[in-house]
Every structure is written in structure tokens, then in C-alpha cells.
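Input C-alpha cells:
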């Protein structure tokens, strides 16, 4: 009996030793993998598939051994499930595409561009309407045809008229002061301008003022100044009602006394009401003729004559120092221009314009001689008298 017990004890010890040897055959890593596998098998099939994909990805990405070499990657681990980019909607709802965000500044920019275009187009149309209203192109052609030897002065005159008459609203009145020696055509120019503008606008909006006729006596200068001021106010008020620009053509300004010049200076200032800013004044004067003559004889042109002319006029009256006054010197007439005057006058009087006879009459006049040119001292002033003697 005792032997039997000893044999049982020995057998149990042998089984324990065998079990301990079997358990020693499994490493801790293998035991962990066995536990993970058992845990994995206990999960549902849907979770297995997703976990296998993740596991394959992790194994494929960590497929590096400790010695630094790479294992060949399994092709199955490269098959990654693509993400579904479709937007799923419930079956009982409508499907709408998401709206793109619109830029609110774009319609505003288009509207602003249209407004600017219309404003510019309207301004251009108004410019054309004003220019056509006064027929300045016709005036320019007529002046170049009727006036001899004054191309440079006429170009400046038309430039100022085109700029000023192209619009109705102005910051200051326009005052054109034309100066020249006797016989160069100042009075003739004034008559041409008055005739043209009277045909374009109301005849009562064009005033031609002759100092020798409207104010012949020097002692009545103050009364003449009051009458001239009243006439300007009445005419400007009427022009404002009709939305037109009045014209004042003043001939013989060199004969005006200081009270008359003071009145004109007052109306040329810029700090006035709007109706007095939309006025055109044209002064015709022989003041400064000595400075113009000396400049032309030295330079054979009126270019640059404005500076000595303004210096001389500033000593006479501050009227010509106003910013609204534009000085335009008239050139001396050469011998060929005097011949043209004779031909024109003889044609008007019904004489046959014989060239030899005309040149003989032109030689009877006195001339300034400079740089091979001959400038008539009295211009065309004596032409009419000599033709009447024929």
C-alpha cells in the first residue's frame, strides 16, 4: 500500500514536470498572440473585416526587421479601402446641390462701371451740343478768311473759346484782351465776332460797346460806368433765365477812364454768383502796341510778347492782372497782307484788281524793315481811303 502511494506521488511529480516543460515551450509573445486570436474570434464578423484591414495596414507599414532590412510587402496589404466621397441622402428627401458662394462686390462693380460710363457719355454729348450750338468751326473758317496776317492770334482766340464754350458751368468768366497796333484789324475782328454770335444766340445777348460812341465825354466817366454796370447786370440776369452765355465785345478800351475799368475789374473777380461767372468779355485795345511792335521787329513773331505786354498793362490798371484775363497780342501786317487788303477792298468797290496797280498803291505806305521783312506801320488803315480816291 505504501508502495502504491509512493508510485502515485512520483507520477504526479512527473506530470507536473511535463506540464512545466510544455508551458516553457511557449514564449510570452506567443501567449499574447494566442490571447489576441481568441479575443478576435469571439468578435462579430463585421468587426473582423475592418480590424483585419487596419491590422494589415499596420503590419505592412511596420514591416521592418531589427537588422535594418525590409521584408517583401504582401500585395494584399496594399489594397486599402477607398473612402466613399458620395453624399448620401435619405430616400424621402429631395437632393439639392450646395450653392456656390457669390461675390457681392462683383454686381456693385458692374453697376458702378455702368454709371461712370453714362456720366462720361453724357458729358461728351453735352460738349458736342455746346460746340455745335455756337458753330465755332464755322467761326474759325470765317475769321481765317476775313482776317489777314493774324493766324497765330486767331488760333489762340479759338482755343480759348472752344475750351470755355464747351460747357455751361464755369469757375470764372472768360476775358480775352486783344492788343495790337493801328490798322491790324481789331475793330474788324470785333464786328465779325458780334455778327457771328448774334446769328447763333439771341441778338439781345450780344453787346458791342464802342467807348468813343457810348462814352464820348471824359467828364461823364462815372455815369458811363454806372450805365455799363447796369447793362451788364440786366444782360447776365436775362442770359441766366435762358441758360445761355452772353457776350460783351468792348472796342476802344484804351479810351476808357478808370471808373469804367474799375467796373469791368469788379465783374471779372471769381467771388461772384454763378450767373456772373458764365460771361464772355472781349476787349479790343491798342494799349501796349509799342511793346508788341518792338518784340515783333526783334523776333519776327508774337511768341513771347505776352510777358512784356502784361508788364506794361499792369502799370495802366490792375484790370489786366486778373487771372480771368487772357492776353492775345496781334501781329503787325506785312506787305503781302496789305496787298490782300487792297484786293479785297477793290473787289468790294467794284474795281478790277490789277496786280500792278495794287502793288503801286501798297508801295505808297510806310513800313518797318527788319530781318528782310516789311511791316506796314499803319497796317490796312489807309487802304479804304486810297481805294476811294480811285
Amino acid at each position: 500500500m505504501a508502495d502504491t502511494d509512493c508510485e502515485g506521488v512520483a507520477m504526479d511529480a512527473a506530470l507536473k514536470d511535463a506540464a512545466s516543460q510544455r508551458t516553457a515551450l511557449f514564449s510570452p509573445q506567443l501567449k499574447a498572440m494566442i490571447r489576441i486570436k481568441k479575443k478576435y474570434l469571439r468578435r462579430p464578423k463585421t468587426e473582423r473585416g475592418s480590424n483585419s484591414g487596419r491590422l494589415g495596414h499596420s503590419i505592412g507599414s511596420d514591416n521592418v526587421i531589427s537588422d535594418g532590412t525590409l521584408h517583401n510587402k504582401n500585395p494584399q496589404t496594399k489594397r486599402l479601402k477607398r473612402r466613399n466621397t458620395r453624399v448620401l441622402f435619405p430616400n424621402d428627401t429631395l437632393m439639392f446641390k450646395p450653392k456656390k458662394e457669390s461675390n457681392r462686390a462683383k454686381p456693385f462693380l458692374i453697376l458702378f462701371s455702368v454709371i461712370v460710363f453714362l456720366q462720361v457719355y453724357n458729358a461728351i454729348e453735352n460738349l458736342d451740343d455746346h460746340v455745335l450750338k455756337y458753330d465755332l468751326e464755322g467761326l474759325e473758317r470765317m475769321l481765317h478768311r476775313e482776317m489777314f496776317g493774324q493766324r497765330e492770334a486767331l488760333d489762340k482766340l479759338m482755343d480759348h473759346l472752344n475750351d470755355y464754350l464747351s460747357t455751361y458751368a464755369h469757375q470764372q468768366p472768360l476775358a480775352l484782351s486783344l492788343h495790337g497796333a493801328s490798322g491790324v484789324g481789331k475793330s474788324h475782328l470785333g464786328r465779325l465776332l458780334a455778327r457771328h454770335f448774334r446769328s447763333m444766340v439771341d441778338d439781345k445777348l450780344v453787346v458791342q460797346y464802342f467807348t468813343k460812341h457810348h462814352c464820348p465825354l471824359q467828364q461823364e466817366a462815372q455815369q458811363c460806368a454806372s450805365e455799363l454796370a447796369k447793362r451788364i447786370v440786366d444782360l447776365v440776369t436775362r442770359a441766366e433765365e435762358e441758360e445761355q452765355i452772353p457776350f460783351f465785345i468792348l472796342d476802344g478800351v484804351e479810351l476808357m477812364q478808370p471808373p469804367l475799368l474799375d467796373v469791368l475789374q469788379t465783374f471779372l473777380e471769381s467771388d461772384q454768383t454763378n450767373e456772373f461767372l458764365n460771361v464772355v468779355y472781349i476787349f479790343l485795345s491798342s494799349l501796349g502796341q509799342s511793346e508788341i511792335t518792338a518784340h515783333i521787329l526783334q523776333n519776327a513773331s508774337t511768341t513771347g510778347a505776352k510777358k512784356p505786354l502784361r508788364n506794361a498793362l499792369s502799370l495802366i490798371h490792375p484790370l489786366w492782372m486778373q487771372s480771368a484775363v487772357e492776353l492775345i497780342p496781334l501781329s503787325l501786317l506785312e506787305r503781302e497782307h496789305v496787298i490782300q487788303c487792297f484786293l479785297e477792298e477793290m473787289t468790294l468797290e467794284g474795281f478790277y484788281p490789277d496786280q500792278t496797280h495794287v502793288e503801286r498803291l501798297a508801295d505808297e505806305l510806310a513800313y518797318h524793315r527788319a530781318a528782310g521783312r516789311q511791316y506796314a506801320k499803319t497796317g490796312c488803315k489807309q487802304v479804304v481811303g486810297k481805294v476811294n480816291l480811285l
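The longest strand covers residues 174-179. The beta strands are 174-179, 206-210, 247-251, 280-285, 325-329, 367-370, 373-376.
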